[in-house]
Amino acid sequence: MAYSQTIPPLIPLSKQIYRDDCDIIAIRNGQTLHTKDLKDAVISIYHQLNTSKEHHWALVMQDSFHFVAGLLALLYCGKHPILINPLHQDLAPYFQAILTDNDAITAYDWPNHNITNITQLPTHNIDIAFIGELRSTSLTLFTSGSTGLPKPVNKTLYQLEYESHLLSTYFGSLSQHLFIASVSHDHMYGLTFKIMLALSNRATFVCESIQYQEQLAQYNGQKIIYITTPSLLKTLDCKITNVECDQVISAGGPLAYHAAQYSLQCFGKLPTEIYGSSETGIIATRTQVAADIPWQLFPQMQIINTKQQSKLMSPLIEGAEPLNDQIELIDQYTFTLKGRTDKIIKISEKRVSLTYIENQLSQLAEIAKVCVIPLEQKNRTILAAVVQLSEFGIQQKQQLGHFRLSQYFRQQLKDKLSLVTIPKKWRFVEQLPTNKQGKSTFIALKTLFDNIE
Q1: Where is pLDDT greater, at 340 or 274?
Q2: Residue limits of the AMP-dependent synthetase/ligase domain (predicted)?
Q3: CATH code of the domain covering residue 376
Q4: Which of 216, 258, 276, 422 could make a disulfide contact with 282, Cβ separation 3.0–4.6 Å?
Q5: Does residue 367 share a domain with residue 352?
Q6: Can you tell me the distance from the alpha carbon of 66 to that of 80, in angstroms, rounded to the nearest whole number?
Q7: pLDDT of residue 324 exceeding 90
C-alpha cells in the first residue's frame, strides 16, 4: 500500500451532526441510518443528560450507532465519557452514571449509579443548533488488562482525529467503503478503525459485530473494509463461500504467516496488520507478502532503543512512551518484534515473568493454551493458571481428575521455578475466554476463580 498524496477533507467529530440529513451513517440489520437519525438521537439524549449532576458517565452500548449518538451527546453536555464494556464492579469507582442501550443493565446490579437507557427516551423536535458546541473534548477508555485490572487511558478528540488523518493519508480516500468489524467500538482499536476512521471519511459502518464469514457474505459486492483480529483470521474456513474485501485490517496480537494466507484465500486480500496500543495509538504497519516481513513505522513516528526499554516518539502522544515489546531496529523506519516484556509482576519482592511460566507449560503435550494471572489471597499474591487442554490433556483429565492433573503440572515446573512462582490454583476450560478483540482479559480470567476457595 503506497501512501496517498491527497485525501479529501476529513470531517471532525464536532461536525458530524451538521452533515446533510440524507448522508448514510450506518447500517443496522440491513436498514440504513442517516444523519437525521443521528441528530434525533443526540438531541434526545442531550435533553435527558444536560441537567444531570453526574460528570463521569460509563458509555456501554451494544449497537455502534447508539454508541456514536451517546458519545456525541455526552460531549455536547460537557460530560466525560468512560468507555467500558463489559461493565465490571471493580471499575465502578471511575464513573457515577451509566448510559446504555442494554436492558440487562439495571439498578439491581448498580444501585449506586444513575442508569439511563437511550432506547426508552422520548424524542424532541428542536433545531440541532440548540445544543451549541462541544463542551467536552476528551474521553477515557481502558486497556485490555492481561495481568491485572484494565488501566484507564485518557484521549483527546485531537489525538483521535489526527490518528484518522494519518490513516487516511496511508489508505487514501475511504468515503465509498463499508466499514465492518468483529471488534468492539469500546476499545482503542475498534474506536479508531470502525468509528473515527469511518465518520471522518463520510463512510458507512455496520452497527452489528460481524464475527463469521457467513455474516460477512451478505455484504458481498460492496467495498468492504473488514476490521478484525488474528484470533478470528486463524480460524477462517476456506471452504465457505469467499467474500471479496477491499481491505482486511488486523490488530490486537501477532498474526501468523499461515493465518495471513487464509485471509488471502477467503477474502482476496492479505491483511494490513497494525501495531499499536491503547496508550500510543497506531505505531506501525505491515503486510505479510512473505514470512517475517518487518514492520514499517507510520509517518512522524520514531522508536528509540535503550538498554532498558524501547520508547516511542509520536505526534499522537506527549513525550516518549515506553513500549512493552522487545524491538529490534533494522533502520530508522523498520523493525521486527521479538516478544512481550510487560507480563512482569512482583511476588515476594521477586520479579516474575508470567510469559516464561506460560511458555514452560505450553511445552507440555497436555496443554493447548494457557494464561497465568496473579490473584490476591489472604493478603498475599499467588499465581493461578487457566488451561485449555489438548485432546491428550482431556484424556488425562478424565483418567486422573482435576486435582491429580494439576499436581502433575506443578511437578513439571518444580525444577524451573521457585515454589512461590508455581501456580497454586488451576482451572481447566474447553476454550480460553476472549473478548471481541481476541484477547483473554484479566477480568474474564479472574472470574473463573471468584467465590471458590
Answers
A1: 274
A2: 138-290
A3: 3.30.300.30
A4: 276
A5: yes
A6: 17
A7: no
User: Cell numbers 480470567 label which residue?
Assistant: 445
Q: Are 293 and 287 in contact, with CB atoms under 8 Å apart?
A: yes
Backbone phi, then psi, for 192, in 5-degree steps? Answer: -70, -50
Check whether 279 has a pLDDT greater than 60.
yes
What's the confidence (pLDDT) of residue 123? 86
Residue ending a domain, among 298, 313, 340, is 340
- CA distance linking residue 420 with residue 422, whole number of Å: 6
Q: Please report where in the chains the cell 427516551 appears, as a residue.
A: 121
The domain in which residue 215 lies consists of 210-340
Q: Does residue 138 form part of some domain? A: no
- 391-444 pLDDT, tens digit per residue, is 999 999 999 999 999 999 999 988 888 788 899 999 999 899 888 777 888 888
pLDDT at residue 1 in the model: 46
Grid coordinates belonging to 321 = 512512551
C-alpha cell of 135? 463542551
User: Strand 24-28 relative to strand 204-206: parallel, antiparallel, unpaired?
Assistant: parallel
pTM of the model: 0.83
371 vs 344 pLDDT, higher one: 371
**Sheet of 367-377, strands arranged across:** 367-377, 380-389, 425-429
What percentage of residues in the chain have a pLDDT greater than 70?
A: 95
405: which 3 cell numbers?
492433573
- The answer to whether residues 216 and 291 belong to one domain is yes
Could you tell me if 348 and 341 are in contact, meaning their C-beta atoms sit under 8 angstroms apart?
Answer: no
- CB neighbours of 91 closer than 8 A, spacing ≥ 6? 84, 142, 149, 150
Q: Do 274 and 335 belong to one domain? A: yes
Q: Decide if 303 is inside a domain.
A: yes
Residue 240 · residue 266 · CB < 8 Å: yes
Quote the Cα angle for 311-344-414, to 5°.
150
Q: Are residues 297 and 402 in the same domain?
A: no
CATH of the domain at 301: 2.30.38
Handedness of CA 281, 287, 293, 298 (dihedral sign): negative
Share of the chain above pLDDT 90, in %: 70
Specify if 441 maps to a domain: yes
In the beta sheet, which residues pair with residue 134? Answer: none
User: Are residues 265 and 316 located together in one domain of the fold?
Assistant: yes
Identify the pLDDT of residue 338.
81
All three cell numbers of 348: 515476594
